[in-house]
Amino acid sequence: MQKGLIGKKIGMTQIFDEKGTVVPVTVVEAGPCAVVMKKTVENDGYEAVQIGFGDIKVQRVTKPLSGHFKKAGTAPKKMLREFKFSDMSELNVGDVLKADMFAPGDVVDVVGTSKGKGTAGVVKRWNFSKLKESHGTGPVGRHPGSIGACSDPSRVFKGKKLAGHLGHERVTVQNLKIVKVDAENNLIAIKGAVPGPRGGIVLISDCVKK
After folding, report:
1. How far apart are CA 143 and CA 196, in angstroms?
2. pLDDT above 70 for 1
3. Cα separation, 184 vs 198, whole angstroms
4. Contacts of 145 (CB under 8 A, 6+ apart)
């Protein structure tokens, strides 16, 4: 069965494998996630399950969402996401998904929101080469240079790489290996880096392509 969970990035550390080799890992608190809604082809046109992660006070939930959680018989959740499982018949509303649905050796895709870096210039944002910083160039060493022709087309083309907002976007990292699973504390150690800051929400699912 295809698997998926919502988790919270705890941070990075390192562990030793059986051969004594240091393995850099990202620790993610994965679950417990409650199945809040089950979508079917008859009612919604497709099959999926909606799961929730992270408890939240009832006062902080809108009335429509409060009724949504009450109908499912679960406590209000901070984050709701949909996952498509290969066999929907195994899941029902009210079920709780935990980290033990994954095992060491599984290969997963992780989706997160990258760190926001604010407004950045072209050197940092697009890896432009700097201009000369001497011999009459002036204080424009990190400027982009010419951005368009003079007479024709007399405008800047769409998609031109310029300074602007950097980071804080959806990032998917594929084919990450699960090194260790702590089922008691709902912790998963994933080899390598995972997008986002500490405390950021991530989505863990079976890899789409190995």
Report:
1. 29
2. no
3. 21
4. 131
pLDDT of res. 149:
80
> Residues 37-60: pLDDT tens digits?
888 888 888 888 899 998 888 888
pLDDT in tens, 17-28: 888 889 999 999
Query: CB neighbours of 191 closer than 8 A, spacing ≥ 6?
Result: 23, 24, 25, 176, 177, 178, 179
Measure CA of the first residue to CA of the last residue in the chain; give whole Å.
Answer: 17
Nearest to 2 by CA among 85, 96, 66, 61: 85
Residue pair 26/189 in contact by the 8 Å Cβ criterion: yes
Amino acid at 3: K
Cα–Cα dist 25/31, whole Å:
18
Backbone φ and ψ of 165, nearest 5°: -70, 130
Largest CA distance in the chain: 72
The residue to which tokens 């499912």 are assigned? 72
- Degrees (nearest 5) of the Cα angle 194, 196, 197? 115
